[in-house]
Amino acid sequence: MTDLKIWLEATRPKTLPAAVVPVMLASSVAYADGCFDWRPALICVLFALFIQVGTNFANDYLDGIKGTDTEARLGPRRAVAAGLIAPARMKRATILVLAVGFCIGLALIPFGGWWLLAVGVASVACAWLYTGGPYPLAYNGLGDVFVVLFFGFVAVGCTYYVQAGTISRDVVLLGLGCGLLVNNILVVNNYRDLDEDRAARKRTLVVFFGRRFAQMQYYASALLAGVVVLSFWALGYGATVLIALLPVMYALVLGGRLSSAEGPSDFLEALKGSAKVVAAYGMLFSAGVVIGAVLSG
User: Fold this and answer.
1) pLDDT tens-digit profile of 92-123?
2) pLDDT above 80: residue 30
3) What value, to the nearest 5°, has the Cα angle with vertex 278 and ends 273 and 281?
4) Which of 100, 139, 234, 279 has its CA 20 to 30 A from that of 128?
């Protein structure tokens, strides 16, 4: 495998839709509210992608040097743990990617104000603190909180704010649904890695409460994301938003499959399926909001 392919694999491309979907959803509501602006929306996409890749690199590096990731892991291989990328190179790449992402984020200040600087600093810091620092979030049961907060409320809320100059109740609801579905990707990861995480003293919610809890968490997150869709319909966004219930129903099917998943292929399918649910939810929900706005004139 060439060096380029190794680095591309290390970006974890299947996770990248999770960075784009919050921007897509927020921008669709901005369109419906008559304040869509493609310039800050595009900057938000680029910022989110760089922060996501930087977080993935940091996770690869930190879990690799801690010994949390091993060659025996059931999930996709990790570059540092597999010896494909030296830890020092991965650390430098992490710093570079996060620095570029932060610089891109500075371009949002004219659209939203200087307070966004704090959001940028927090995003970069948490990208590292997710698995690094004296109290790693992912190692102390806070990984789920991080994902719902940053991939839901922060990403959706800030994207809308830099276009509309305000935050609405609908955007908060949207952030909740988005964050919960993105977090289901993490739930599958932690469900799969339970034994490894327990051995490495990585205290995820699955380690604390068990696989049955994780399955119920997966179901609950999917159902709440569906409630958000129904809420938007009730709030007058049009029946077209109901198409976003399709990926929610598929998520419920995936939740049922978790209990019978055993080998790497089963978990890989659950992981791929969860990522597809996020992408489909984002695309269909956004399309439903925009089409509803167009039809309502």
Assistant:
1) 999 999 999 999 999 999 999 999 999 999 99
2) yes
3) 115
4) 279
The Cα–Cα gap between 4 and 293 comes to: 43
Is there a contact between 32 and 238 (Cβ–Cβ < 8 Å)?
no
Measured CA to CA, the distance from residue 30 to residue 155 in angstroms comes to 14
Domains along the chain? 3-295 (1.10.600)
Three-class HEC string of the chain: CCHHHHHHHHCCHHHCHHHHHHHHHHHHHHHHCCCCCHHHHHHHHHHHHHHHHHHHHHHHHHHHHHCCCCCCCCCCCCCCCCCCCCHHHHHHHHHHHHHHHHHHHHCCHHHHCCCHHHHHHHHHHHHHHCCCCCCCHHHECCHHHHHHHHHHHHHHHHHHHHHHCCCCHHHHHHHHHHHHHHHHHHHHHHHHCHHHHHHCCCECHHHHHCHHHHHHHHHHHHHHHHHHHHHHHHHHHCHHHHHHHHHHHHHHHHHHHHCCCCCHHHHHHHHHHHHHHHHHHHHHHHHHHHHHHHHCC
Which of 61-75, 137-151, 247-261 shows the lowest per-residue confidence on average (mean pLDDT)? Answer: 61-75
Find, among 250, 249, 266, the residue nearest to 258 by Cα: 266
> Model confidence over 245-267: pLDDT tens digits?
999 999 999 998 887 777 777 88
- Phi, psi angle pair for 140, to nearest 5°: -130, 30
pLDDT band for position 174 (cuts 50, 70, 90): very high
